[in-house]
Amino acid sequence: PRLFRSVPDSWATVNQSTASLMELIPEFFVLPARWLRNDLGITTSEGPLADVVLPRWAEGDEDFICKMREALESDWVSQNLPSWIDLVFGYKQRGEEALKSDNLFHPVCYAGDGDGRRASGA
């Protein structure tokens, strides 16, 4: 069965649990949005695979994608992109700066020897 079933449920999970490490895939920003629907009529052991549940603010698949893309291309995102890069790839990824930025993840999320340290030579 599909692991991703609901945008609102996934949003709630990533905001309430440090165990959830979901990321938005590029398909969230590109039409057509066929991946949000079960157009093929797929059935699992749990029954027919339902369409992905969208947030209340989305009037449908196309509206959802268009609003997601509008947000991605917004001035706010453009202005804050350097901060995101620092968190994900830069100096706020680890150590004291990561702690100050509330940007800490389980050690297995980091490349290295499994306890949060980089492997030698990395």
Helix % is 25-40%
Strand content: under 5%
If you average the pLDDT, what whole number results?
A: 84
Biggest sheet details: 2 strands, antiparallel
Order of helices and strands: HEEHHH
The backbone outline, from C-alpha atoms, is: globular
Question: What's the alpha carbon Rg, rounded to whole Å?
Answer: 18 Å
Would you count the extended β strands for me? 2
How are the SSEs ordered, and which strands pair?
Blueprint lengths: L6 H10 L26 E2 L2 E2 L12 H12 L2 H14 L6 H6 L22
Antiparallel strand pairs: 1-2
Structural description of this entry:
The chain has 122 residues and is mainly alpha-helical. It has 4 helices and 2 strands; from the N terminus they run αββααα. It has a two-stranded antiparallel ribbon with strand order 1-2.
In short:
With 122 residues, the chain is mainly α. It has helices at 7-16, 61-72, 75-88, 95-100, and strands at 43-44, 47-48. A two-stranded antiparallel sheet has the order 1-2.
List keywords for this structure.
122 residues; mainly alpha; two-stranded antiparallel ribbon; 4 helices; 34% helix
